[in-house]
C-alpha cells in the first residue's frame, strides 16, 4: 500500500479559506491514526490568485495539481472579481480550466440525509427520511464550455451567445460511469435531459438508450429536467443515481442539497483523469465569509471522497464519515443547521469536533 500521498490544497476565496483548513485537520487526524503520510502543498487559485499574481489560475498552481495525487479545493469567486474580463473571472478563468485540464468529466455529488438532520430540512419527515441519491454530473462539456460571444445589434443593444454542444463520446463516458455506480447501488438510473426541446439533449437521450442495452440489470428512466426539479422535492426517494449534463447537474444539486438540510452538507468528487479534485458543491458564500459561520462538513466529506476515490482508502474514508455522523448525533450544529435544543458551534469548533471523533474512533 502506498504510504505517502501528495495533496494540492487550494483554499480559494471567501469561506474557502475557512473550510479547507478544517478538512486538512480531518486528513491529518486520519494520517496520524492510520500511519499514512499526507504531504499538503498550498497554492493560490481564483480571486486570491488574481489579486496576487494577475491570473486566477497561475501556471504553478496548475502544475502543482497535475503533479499531485489529489486536489482539495475550497471555493472561488465573489463580487470583487465579477466585473473582470471573462477569461480573468475566477469561475471561467480558473475553475473551468482546472476541471478541463485535469480531465475531470464526472462530478459525483452524493446527497444523503445524515442522522439527526431530519428536522433541519423544511420538507416533511416522511418525504426525506432515508434519502440517498448520487448525482453524476457531466463536468467538462456543455454550455459552460461552449463558445461565448457578445456583439452589438442594429437597435443599439447587444446580443450574447453561449453554445451548448455534446458529442456522443462525452455523453457515453459519463453515462457509463453512472451505470457502473448504479450497479453498485440500488440499480436505478435516471437520466435527466430536455430532449423535448434541445438537440444536445436528444443526442444525450439516444446515447443513454443505446447504453442501457449493456446494463439490463439497471432500471433506466428518462426524465425532463423541469420535472426532475419538481420530483426531487415531491418524492426524492424515487431516485438512486441521477446522470445529467453540466448545467442541469449544477442546478439540480444545489436544489437537492436542501434535502440534506443545508448546502453545507453536499460534498463532491470530480474524477475521470489521473488526479481527482475534491470540493464542496457550494460556492464562496461572500455573505458569511470571514465570520466563522460556514459549515465545513461538505468539505470534510469531500476529503473522505478523496480517500475513497483517489487513494482507495475505504476504511479511512468511512472513519471521516462516521466522525461527521457522530458529531451530528451529539447535536453540534453550525448556524445553517441550527435548531432549538442543539449546540451551536463555529467553523473551527465543528472541524475540531470531527478531528476529535476521528482520533477516538475504534
Ligand atoms: N465551486 C466553486 O468554487 C463555486 C463558486 N461559486 C461562486 O461563489 C460565489 C457565491 O455564489 P452564490 O451563488 O452566493 O453561492 P454559494 O454557494 O456561495 O452561497 C449560496 C448560499 O448558501 C450559503 N452557503 C454556501 N456554503 C455554505 C456553507 N458551507 N455553510 C453555510 N452556508 C453556506 C451562503 O451563505 C449563501 O447564502 C460566486 O462568485 C459564485 O460564482 C459558486 C458555486 C461554486
Ligand atoms: C461556478 C460554476 C462554474 C460552478 C458551480 O456552480 C459548481 O460547480 O457547482
Ligand atoms: Mg454550483
TrEMBL record:
Job of this protein: Catalyzes the oxidation of 3-carboxy-2-hydroxy-4-methylpentanoate (3-isopropylmalate) to 3-carboxy-4-methyl-2-oxopentanoate. The product decarboxylates to 4-methyl-2 oxopentanoate.
Pfam families, A to Z: Iso_dh (PF00180)
HAMAP family: LeuB_type1 (MF_01033)
Cellular compartment(s): Cytoplasm
Entry's cofactor comment: Binds 1 Mg(2+) or Mn(2+) ion per subunit.
Amino-acid positions noted as binding NAD(+) in the UniProt annotation, renumbered to this chain: 78-91, 283-295
Gene that encodes it: leuB
Subunit structure: Homodimer.
EC code: 1.1.1.85
Similarity field: Belongs to the isocitrate and isopropylmalate dehydrogenases family. LeuB type 1 subfamily.
Listed name of the protein: 3-isopropylmalate dehydrogenase
Keywords, comma-separated and alphabetical: Amino-acid biosynthesis, Branched-chain amino acid biosynthesis, Cytoplasm, Leucine biosynthesis, Magnesium, Manganese, Metal-binding, NAD, Oxidoreductase
InterPro entries in the record: IsoCit/isopropylmalate_DH_CS, IsoPropMal-DH-like_dom, Isopropylmalate_DH
Domain Isopropylmalate dehydrogenase-like: from-to ranges: 6-354
Binding site for Mg(2+): 226, 250, 254
Predominant subcellular localization, coarse grouping: cytoplasm
Domain of life: Bacteria
Binding site for substrate: 99, 109, 137, 226
Example of a GO cellular component annotation carried by this entry: cytosol
Keyword Transferase set for record: no
Amino acid at each position: 500500500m502506498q504510504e505517502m500521498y501528495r495533496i494540492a490544497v487550494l483554499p480559494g476565496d471567501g469561506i474557502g479559506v475557512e473550510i479547507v483548513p478544517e478538512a486538512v485537520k480531518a486528513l491529518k487526524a486520519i494520517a496520524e491514526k492510520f500511519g499514512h503520510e499526507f504531504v499538503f502543498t498550498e497554492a493560490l487559485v481564483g480571486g486570491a490568485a488574481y489579486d496576487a499574481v494577475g491570473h486566477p489560475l497561475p501556471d504553478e498552481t496548475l502544475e502543482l495539481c497535475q503533479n499531485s495525487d489529489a486536489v482539495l479545493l475550497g471555493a472561488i469567486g465573489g463580487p470583487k472579481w465579477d466585473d473582470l474580463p471573462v477569461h480573468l473571472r475566477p469561475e471561467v478563468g480558473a475553475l473551468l480550466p482546472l476541471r478541463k485540464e485535469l480531465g475531470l468529466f464526472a462530478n459525483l455529488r452524493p446527497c444523503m440525509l445524515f442522522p439527526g438532520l431530519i428536522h433541519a430540512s423544511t420538507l416533511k419527515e416522511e418525504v426525506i427520511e432515508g434519502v440517498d441519491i448520487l448525482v453524476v454530473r457531466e463536468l467538462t462539456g456543455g454550455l459552460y464550455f461552449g463558445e461565448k460571444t457578445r456583439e452589438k445589434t442594429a437597435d443599439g443593444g447587444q446580443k450574447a451567445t453561449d453554445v451548448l454542444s455534446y458529442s456522443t463520446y462525452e455523453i457515453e463516458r459519463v453515462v457509463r460511469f453512472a451505470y457502473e455506480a448504479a450497479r453498485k447501488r440500488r440499480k436505478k438510473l435516471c437520466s435527466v435531459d430536455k430532449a423535448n426541446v434541445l438537440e444536445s439533449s436528444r443526442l444525450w437521450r439516444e446515447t443513454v438508450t443505446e447504453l442501457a442495452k449493456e446494463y439490463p440489470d439497471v432500471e433506466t428512466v428518462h426524465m425532463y429536467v423541469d420535472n426532475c426539479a419538481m420530483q426531487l422535492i415531491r418524492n426524492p426517494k424515487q431516485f438512486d443515481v441521477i446522470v445529467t449534463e453540466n448545467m442541469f447537474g449544477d442546478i439540480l444539486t444545489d436544489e437537492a442539497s436542501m434535502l440534506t438540510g443545508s448546502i453545507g452538507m453536499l460534498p463532491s468528487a470530480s474524477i475521470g483523469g489521473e488526479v481527482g479534485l475534491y470540493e464542496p458543491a457550494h460556492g464562496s458564500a461572500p455573505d458569511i465569509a470571514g465570520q466563522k459561520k460556514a459549515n465545513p462538513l461538505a468539505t470534510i466529506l469531500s476529503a473522505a471522497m478523496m480517500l475513497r476515490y483517489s487513494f482507495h482508502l475505504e476504511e479511512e474514508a468511512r472513519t471521516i464519515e462516521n466522525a461527521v455522523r457522530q458529531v451530528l448525533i451529539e447535536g453540534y450544529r453550525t448556524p445553517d443547521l441550527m435548531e432549538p435544543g442543539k449546540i451551536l458551534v463555529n467553523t473551527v469548533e465543528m472541524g475540531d469536533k470531527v478531528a476529535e471523533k476521528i482520533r477516538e474512533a475504534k
